[in-house]
Hints:
26% of the residues lie in helices and 21% in strands. By secondary structure, it is of the alpha+beta class. A 4-stranded mixed β-sheet has the order 2-1-4-3. Strands 5-6 form a two-stranded antiparallel sheet.
Amino acid sequence: xxxxxxxxxxxxxxxxxxxxxxxxxxxxxxxxxxxxxxxxxxxxxxxxxxxxxxxxxxxxxxxxxxxxxxxxxxxxxxxxxxxxxxxxxxxxxxxxxxxxxxxxxxxxxxxxxxxxxxxxxxxxxxxxxxxxxxxxxxxxxxxxxxxxxxxxxxxxxxxxxxxxxxxxxxxxxxxxxxxxxxxxxxxxxxxxxxxxxxxxxxxxxxx
Length: 207
């Protein structure tokens, strides 16, 4: 299991290995907000809960340009791992086919690499469309491409436990969490940024 790292503002940042999370706690750079289960980690001088959620002590600024970058991993997640032309999912593809990135307006014809100009396409459909516009070949995407919310980019490709999902809901709301897999119904975490006062929260500071 990996650990969810929160910014000082409680914004979910990323998933880190438990070993890395413990190192941040021991160095005084983070605090344990919640543990997952009764497991503890022992060293010569410390006994710590096995962290599920840690929170950085100092706020880390995340430039928006890193939040908006188009990558195939996030693109495929946005489109549900489904070709936007033939509607086949990744599991439906033949042995030598794969998911690819297609530009509605091809790069060679002045199109850009923005979220609103790229869709997920199987390799067969991408080849068939070639250098043409959708209206020239009669191939229109299943849904209109859009820039997804940052929470979708960050968490659509990760598996969260119920405890970790509570903090995604806390910061981004139930709608964003539902878009990541419909688990918000079982997440009844705190409604505001005072999550650290929850009765199940474990605080450990080593400073």
